[in-house]
Write a structure and sequence with these properties.
Layout: E1 2-6, H1 13-20, E2 25-28, H2 29-35, E3 39-43, E4 48-51, H3 53-59, E5 70-73, E6 84-89, H4 92-101, H5 106-117, H6 120-127, E7 131-136, H7 142-154, H8 170-173
Parallel strand pairs: 1-5, 1-6, 2-5, 6-7
Antiparallel strand pairs: 3-4
Helix pairs in contact: 1-7, 4-5
């Protein structure tokens, strides 16, 4: 079973995936793309490489045949054909603090906060037609989030999309 853990940068995907890696196979999409030559041109404004998501998806097809639980960690993981998409959500103020600590540019921070407020990744995930769960991890510890993810893969309907709404934050940020 292939499960995407996705969300805006700074929500805690990699921290939680690291915890899950003690029990499951986890593929870091960013490292995987780099190792497999899937990086495209560098976007100077955003300070990151573009990834051909079609090539990424094609290169991971063999993983979908496995019966073992395999997690895909990364904000592009919802573009891969998988069995379940878990969208992690987090308060924009928390995302701001985390991305600032990482040294992201103000523009990149604002782009990511806008994406979180406007539900971009959640919308893309739901539009894919894949079963999607949404987890607000703002007030959860990483171990609590990992346990909720394990519940969500057994019963995704426990965490339906549409439960998180940051729209009241838009005026604060833009």
């Amino acid at each position: 079973m292939l499960i995407a853990i996705t969300g805006t940068p700074g929500v805690g995907k990699s921290t939680v995936a690291n915890l899950l890696s003690t029990k499951y196979k986890v593929i870091d999409i960013n490292s995987y793309a780099k190792r497999n030559g899937l990086l495209e041109e560098f976007d100077v404004e955003l300070g990151s490489y573009n990834v051909d998501t079609n090539k990424l998806n094609d290169s991971l097809k063999y993983k979908t045949k496995s019966r073992e639980v395999v997690f895909l960690d990364g904000h592009l993981s919802h573009f891969v054909n998988c069995d379940i998409i878990i969208v992690l959500r987090c308060d924009p103020n928390t995302i701001y603090k985390r991305l600032k600590q990482r040294g992201y540019s103000l523009r990149k921070i604002q782009d990511n906060i806008q994406s979180e407020i406007l539900d971009i990744i959640l919308s893309e995930s739901v539009s894919s037609g894949t079963i999607t769960s949404e987890i607000n991890c703002t007030n959860l510890t990483p171990p609590e989030t990992a346990r909720i993810i394990e519940k969500a893969i057994k019963n995704p309907s426990l965490f339906p999309p549409g439960s998180v709404d940051w729209s009241n934050e838009i005026d604060k940020w833009f």
